[in-house]
Specification:
The protein has one domain. The protein contains five helices and 16 strands. Strands 1, 2, 4, 7, 8 and 15 form a six-stranded mixed β-sheet that branches. Strand 13 and strand 14 form a beta hairpin. The N and C termini lie far apart (80 Å). The N terminus is likely disordered.
């Protein structure tokens, strides 16, 4: 409500000058008040993206820190649009389970993709993550997303490859309904709505996205500019070597025949058949 209070204070100035019959708006009527919620210069949004755990199953953790007072963000929601490269995949069934347990709020945007497909038969996918306020940081948000490695083609020399996870799009939506009802001004030739100052500082463009995870309504989210701690995240993925192809195929075939034989022996020995 701090932003609303500031806006109402600005409207009071406008009404005062309108009632006194001024024909020109003085420059001081539009100067930023001394309230700390509005600043002459915009502080930066800092985004930090890191990957936790080892192996083929990782956790992507995204932290966002605002340079504004949390009072200015009380009615705002943060949405992270994460791009998953072809070398990784997100399991939609795992996301559904995590949503049920209230661990994360994320949903797949891309459809008709195969989580079993290798890297060279896959495409980049998109995930929407509704970030939550960080309990350990008053002006921070964080989001959590489990990701998994896909299988890659074997290499002739190097036994590893790299997957680059680019920084996401940062979207913000602030519920301004209450403020607009208080501060909308209507004159014969003047109609102006005072918006949230944080959006004035950081917004670049608007993006249509669901208002909430369980809400089918579409909101116009502001695509925010930010500063990233890292340019991107690079993951090292182990891959096979082509010189091992014959050995791997031979051993795999031998084990398959051996296991199949043992299963058939057990079926004929312990199974009960009736004609």
């Amino acid at each position: 409500m701090a932003a609303c209070a500031v806006a109402v204070r600005a409207v009071a100035w406008l009404l005062l000058w309108a009632v006194t019959g001024r024909t020109r708006w003085p420059a001081t009527a539009f100067t930023a008040p001394s309230d700390p919620g509005i600043r002459a210069t915009c502080s930066e949004i800092i985004l930090r993206q890191e990957v936790l755990k080892d192996g083929f199953h990782r956790d992507l953790l995204i932290k966002v820190k605002f340079g504004e007072s949390i009072e200015d963000l009380q009615t705002c929601r943060l949405l992270i649009k994460q791009y998953i490269p072809a070398g990784l995949f997100v399991d939609p069934y795992e996301l559904a389970s995590l949503r049920e347990r209230n661990i994360t709020e994320a949903v797949m945007v891309s459809e008709n993709f195969n989580i079993e497909a290798p890297n060279y038969l896959s495409k980049e996918t998109e995930v929407l993550i509704y970030a939550r306020q960080d309990s350990q940081c008053i002006d921070c948000f964080q989001a959590f997303l489990p990701v998994h490695y896909r299988y890659h083609r074997p290499h002739s020399k190097d036994g590893e490859t790299f997957v680059i996870v680019n920084n996401p799009d940062l979207l913000m939506y602030c519920d301004q309904a209450d403020c607009r009802g208080m501060i909308r001004l209507r004159f014969d030739s003047f109609d102006k709505t005072i918006e949230f100052p944080i959006l004035k500082c950081w917004a670049q463009s608007e993006v249509a996205a669901p208002c909430a995870l369980k809400n089918r309504d579409i909101c116009q989210w502001n695509n925010m500019k930010y500063k990233s701690v890292y340019k991107n995240v690079t993951l090292q993925v182990p891959v096979g070597l082509t010189i091992h192809t014959s050995l791997v195929c031979s051993v795999t075939l031998l084990i398959t025949i051996l296991c199949s034989t043992l299963i058939l022996v057990a079926v004929f020995k312990y199974g009960h058949f009736s004609l």
